[in-house]
């Protein structure tokens, strides 16, 4: 063998192995999504679909995002309880999250009716109103929910010792990240998807919320489901009245959006429902519904 031939052989031997093929959404995948949605809308329980398992890297995220967008296209306009039932049946390891705030009872009541086995994650930040903690206890008991209380790594006292007292007054972004965003990411590491009560009319950032989307948390991509995305304030109120559901104790005092006590005030007449949150900072999101760069991932498609 000539020296030139040996050189080219060595170059070929040093080449990196080909990257594995990233799966793409094909006709069979679309048909499976359409079938599961149709079954759910008809009142049947859909079968679990391992295609909706969380993925661990960005290369594979294209598939889960496209599959979630396909589901969103089929589920748009469907009844909220059917959307929730679909997600609870199809996504392998599914959970709901709740702040047990002013509107939380709607999603929790639906969950108790269509998927009572699904656990609920509650971010116990250490700064909640006493009324919120009592409301959490009441709803868990009345609706027979399994609630997982999730607490930050640092207690309120430990956080004050490390970062100074009242961090929420100086740097609410850091406080929310430590007490909400990071704990939620840790909790969801054991799940493939989760349901939230986010609605499009709540804030401009939420206006494009799809019913289903692929969402990145840390280095994992999961399925995020918003059954109430299209609901108006009147829809929420009508549901609470129709089912005679207990209201958050602070609702009677004018609180329309209820989070941590130090960062929540009653919204003034004419203000948006979340304007009473972090009002001194022009902030309306704690971060758990935004991507890591502070924006919202939105991808839509149409069936077919």
Helix content: 25-40%
Number of helical stretches of at least 4 residues:
10
Average pLDDT, all residues:
84
The stretches of 5 or more residues where confidence is low (pLDDT under 50) are 2-22, 283-304
Strand order of the largest sheet: 3-2-1-4-6-5
Q: How does the helix and strand content classify structurally?
A: alpha/beta
Summarize the SSE layout with pairings:
Layout: H1 3-13, H2 27-41, H3 58-75, H4 80-90, E1 94-97, H5 104-114, E2 120-123, H6 130-142, E3 147-150, H7 156-163, H8 167-170, H9 172-187, E4 193-195, E5 212-217, E6 220-225, H10 233-242
Parallel strand pairs: 1-2, 1-4, 2-3, 4-6
Antiparallel strand pairs: 5-6
Helix pairs in contact: 2-3, 2-4, 4-5
Describe, in plain words, how this protein is organized in 3D.
The protein is an alpha/beta fold and 304 residues long. 38% of the residues lie in helices and 9% in strands. The protein has helices at residues 3-13, 27-41, 58-75, 80-90, 104-114, 130-142, 156-163, 167-170, 172-187, 233-242, and strands at 94-97, 120-123, 147-150, 193-195, 212-217, 220-225. Strands 3-2-1-4-6-5 form a six-stranded mixed sheet, sandwiched between helices. Strand 1, helix 5 (104-114) and strand 2 form a beta-alpha-beta unit. The longest helix has 18 residues, at 58-75. Mean pLDDT is 84; it is low at 2-22 and 283-304.
List key phrases describing it.
disordered C terminus; 38% helix; 6 strands; 6-stranded mixed beta sheet; 10 helices; alpha/beta; 304 residues
């Amino acid at each position: 063998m000539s020296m030139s031939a040996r050189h080219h052989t060595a170059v070929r031997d040093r080449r990196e192995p080909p990257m594995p093929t990233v799966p793409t959404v094909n006709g069979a995948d679309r048909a499976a999504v359409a079938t599961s949605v149709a079954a759910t809308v008809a009142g049947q329980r859909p079968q679990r679909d391992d295609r909706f398992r969380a993925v661990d890297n960005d290369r594979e995220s294209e598939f889960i995002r496209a599959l979630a967008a396909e589901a969103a296209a089929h589920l748009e306009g469907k009844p909220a309880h059917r959307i929730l039932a679909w997600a609870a049946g199809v996504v392998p390891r599914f959970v709901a999250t709740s702040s047990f705030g002013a509107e939380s009872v709607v999603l929790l009541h639906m969950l108790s009716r269509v998927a009572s086995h699904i656990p609920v994650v509650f971010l116990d930040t250490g700064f909640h109103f006493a009324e919120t903690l009592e409301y959490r206890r009441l709803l868990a008991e009345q609706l027979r929910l399994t609630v997982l209380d999730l607490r930050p790594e640092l207690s309120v006292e430990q956080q004050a010792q490390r970062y100074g007292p009242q961090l929420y007054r100086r740097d609410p972004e850091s406080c929310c990240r430590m007490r909400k965003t990071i704990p939620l990411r840790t909790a969801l590491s054991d799940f493939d998807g989760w349901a939230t009560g986010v609605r499009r009319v709540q804030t401009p950032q939420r206006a494009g919320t799809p019913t289903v989307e692929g969402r990145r948390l840390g280095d994992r991509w999961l399925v995020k489901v918003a059954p109430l995305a299209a609901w108006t304030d009147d829809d929420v109120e009508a549901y609470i009245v129709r089912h005679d559901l207990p209201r958050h104790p602070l609702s009677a005092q004018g609180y329309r959006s209820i989070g941590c006590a130090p960062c929540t005030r009653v919204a003034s007449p004419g203000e948006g429902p979340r304007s009473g949150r972090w009002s001194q900072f022009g902030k309306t999101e704690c971060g758990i519904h935004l991507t890591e760069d502070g924006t919202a991932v939105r991808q839509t498609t149409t069936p077919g």
